Amino acid sequence: MDHSVHFIAFMYIIAVIALTSIMIVRYTPDMSATKKENQKSIAEVRNSLAEAIEKARYFDETTVLTSRKKRVAVIVGMDFYERALSALGETRELVAKSD
Question: Does residue 51 sit in the same domain as residue 8?
């Protein structure tokens, strides 16, 4: 056999291993693990909004906003928000700024 046949066989084996690995890694129990949820009053978040955004953006943590101890809104990361819209089959339209 010439070297090109060996190379093609080698590349085929590598491709099969790579695809098998992708399928195995596709789902892990960590993906369905309980996510962290912070709960803060609107007044508390007003003073630390950057922290709540950082938790949502980089750590996939939600912050539930409360008003008079009632849960009224949630700060979530954009990825989560887009996946939720897609799962619900909803679309959103950006509201134009009013001057």
Answer: no
Query: Domain tally for the chain?
Result: 2
Global pTM reads 0.60
The answer as to whether 61 is a domain residue is yes
Residues 6+ apart with CB under 8 A from 36: 55, 59, 60, 61, 62
Residue 94, both tokens: 């950006």
Residue whose pair of structure tokens reads 């990825």 in the numeric block: 79
User: Who contacts 64 (Cβ-Cβ below 8 Å, separation ≥6)?
Assistant: 37, 38, 39, 40, 71, 73, 74
pLDDT tens readout for residues 59-95: 889 999 999 999 999 999 998 898 889 888 988 888 8
